């Protein structure tokens, strides 16, 4: 795929964190140190292939606080009018320079649709920060009615999947559109189309909305008791930190520190780190002002995208064009898979320059909506 040549970025972000000792480097002084964790250390034989612990995005390092501080860039405003050139407001030179490398998907719309002609387009969409704005209270991350209508229109023309770090049920509730596929917990909880033959033996065929047959795939199901245990510990140990919020995302746990005084961020990180010391089958990654605890398995949003393309019967199809739009570090795995396997491209949603495996960029959810609407119009005209 030659949408953009010389695209040789390699991810270097929050994950530039090196894995050394904890910033504080001292034994835990927590009064609620975890107990009972050893149940799992030598417990069930977990059959799912695992990543090694100590991967780049571990936060058990001196760079932890730096990563926490840089995990949510300051917004820059940008206004764009495709038909009449480009107008910028309050955009710094660095962002404009960055856009030379990651062009706006709106400004590049004609190039994208020229390339898409005759191809089967599949849409993958992150939720927070992509379809909805990032807000202080994660329970209030509602998408607008106009965005909902746009996503609904998308689903009429293209297979569309939502892939989020949230638990699947919650993100489905937020989006509220039935004719979509949903993958929650960073792709570890997938409702997809039924599969004819399956190399994933744990798939469960089931019925869903309107009695439609679907496949449920949960590659980290064996980790649920462990995740629940850590969830309880995190809730207990962070309850006295003002602003800290622990969110149950089923196969992962999110510790939000957006509303915590910055001077207490190291305390949040230390608590999470100290708890995870006793759970080598779990790892820690960074989101936007959130620390995320996940099972150490060889599964991510990129694997979820491949799984869904297989489910749709499109993974071996050379005429497929998958477009993944997301703003998270975890979306990078999906961007990378699409580029490497020549199946499509990623669009990074960011209002500030950052390294990415994406090809294009959009500034914020309002530009995402504009892009999706344009795709719907383009497709509907092409069918006339
Ligand atoms: Mg997001």
TrEMBL record:
CDD domains tied to this protein: HAD_TPP
Cofactors, names only: a divalent metal cation
Record InterPro entries: HAD-like_sf, HAD-SF_hydro_IIB, HAD_sf, OTSB-like, Trehalose_PPase
Pathway the protein takes part in: Glycan biosynthesis; trehalose biosynthesis
Gene Ontology MF, one: trehalose-phosphatase activity
Key word Hydrolase present: yes
Domain of life (superkingdom): Eukaryota
Reactions mediated catalytically: alpha,alpha-trehalose 6-phosphate + H2O = alpha,alpha-trehalose + phosphate
Alphabetically ordered keywords of this record: Hydrolase, Stress response
Biological processes annotated in GO: trehalose biosynthetic process
Family recorded in the similarity comment: Belongs to the trehalose phosphatase family.
Name of the protein this chain belongs to: Trehalose 6-phosphate phosphatase
Organism of this sequence: Cicer arietinum
Name of the encoding gene: LOC101506623
